[in-house]
Design a protein that fits this description.
Elements lengths: L1 H10 L13 H12 L1 E6 L4 H6 L2 E3 L1 H10 L4 E5 L2 H10 L4 E3 L8 H4 L3 H10 L4 E5 L4 H4 L4 E3 L4 H6 L7 E4 L2 H11 L3 E3 L12 H10 L4 E4 L5 H6 L2 E2 L2 H10 L4 E5 L5 H7 L4 E4 L20 H10 L8 H17 L1
Parallel strand pairs: 1-2, 1-3, 3-4, 5-6, 5-7, 7-8, 9-10, 9-11, 11-12
Helix pairs in contact: 2-15, 4-5, 5-16, 13-14
Bound molecules: 1,3-dihydroxyacetonephosphate and iron/sulfur cluster.
1,3-dihydroxyacetonephosphate (13P) binds next to loops.
Length: 328
């Protein structure tokens, strides 16, 4: 066990040994899952082949709801660290494992807890709303958590006379502020994927595909949201493409969602919006894409890397997440 821990410390995951390389890993994952009474929860941004073997695929709100209600003994969270941490906060008695500990989030990293604490102290008597894309320590400083699916509802649940701090995503914060007509003190954080879409690149795609409908996640900056015909959370975007009569969509969010969109609408076309750097696949979240079938197998087999949270922090972080779930 010590050797495994060392490997996790060094690499963030356990690599396959030579004998395991010939295994049918999907069959093995299914076997291990049954033996161990484990459930695989995956976010829509992970690779399609992982979405296909997961027990449940969802956006961050749906995944946290699943994590709260599952009867499994082990939750394998195929997503990023803050999502697995949220599952552990909600289900402390369960073992929560993440295939690769390096699967972080640039948005969560843009809000260190010590700086956020000082920010809160500078704005006393404000209600603190934090996006779920934050560390457990930031959640522990928060009054109520939100996701992109329920941010409007959460902001509207705060009495009008109360002032609000919203963190950490400035684009989502500004968008929700416009929708709800509420002034908020907004933390200056962003997601490196959503803040890097190319406005010119999207307009060029629209010129070449005039019937295509532009859709965007609210973590994108205002100029992208302004040219979008629909703005919504991951699950709202998926639902929109299923229900809308258009045949082509330009998708300004992480392109992993296109896997589900295609499943629901095989006759439609989905064009991933380009990032600023045309040379790289920068509209992909490299943290989400660290998850692989190999790492999923090894994490289920060795039940590591495991998410562990200081109990005092966990209890504090539980309160704002529970408030959100009660309102959702
Ligand atoms: P959702 O809340 O829409 O799942 O988004 C999570 C996320 O990480 C967006 O980048
Ligand atoms: Fe974080 Fe952005 Fe990746 Fe979402 S897409 S997990 S906000 S880095």
């Amino acid at each position: 066990m010590k050797i495994l821990n060392k490997e996790i410390l060094k690499n963030g995951f356990i690599s396959l040994n030579t004998n395991e390389k010939d295994l049918n890993l999907k069959d093995e994952i299914n076997k291990l899952k049954k033996e161990k009474n484990a459930v695989i929860l995956a976010h829509y941004y992970v690779k399609g082949e992982i979405q296909d073997i997961a027990d449940f695929v969802g956006d961050s709100l749906a995944l946290s709801q699943k994590a709260a209600e599952t009867h499994a003994d082990i939750i394998v969270f195929v997503g990023v660290h803050f999502m697995a941490e949220t599952a552990k906060i909600l289900s402390p008695q369960k073992k929560v494992i993440l295939p690769d500990l390096n699967a972080g989030c640039s948005l969560a990293d843009s809000c260190p807890d010590n700086d956020f604490r000082e920010f809160i102290l500078k704005h006393p008597d404000h209600t603190v709303i934090s996006y779920v894309n934050t560390s457990a320590k930031v959640k522990a400083l928060t009054d109520i958590v939100c996701t992109s699916s329920n941010a409007v509802k959460i902001v509207e649940s705060i009495p009008k006379e109360k002032q609000i701090i919203f963190g950490p995503d400035r684009n989502l914060g500004n968008y929700i502020s416009r929708l709800t007509d509420r002034e908020m003190v907004i933390w200056d954080g962003a997601c490196h994927v959503h803040s890097e879409f190319s406005l010119d690149g999207i307009l060029e795609q629209k010129k070449n595909n005039p019937d295509a409908v532009i859709i965007a996640h609210p973590e994108c900056p205002k100029p992208i949201l302004t040219i979008s015909e629909f703005v919504g959370s991951t699950s709202a975007l998926i639902k929109f493409t299923k229900e809308n009569s258009a045949k082509t969509f330009i998708v300004a969010t992480e392109p992993g969602v296109i896997h589900e969109m295609k499943k629901l609408s095989a006759d439609k076309f989905f064009i991933p919006a380009p990032g600023e750097d045309a040379e790289c696949a920068c509209s992909e979240c490299e943290f989400m894409k660290l998850n692989s079938i190999e790492k999923l197998y090894s994490c289920l087999k060795y039940e590591q890397p495991e998410i562990l949270i200081n109990e005092e922090i966990r209890k504090k972080a539980y309160i704002p997440i529970k408030r959100m779930l009660d309102l959702s």
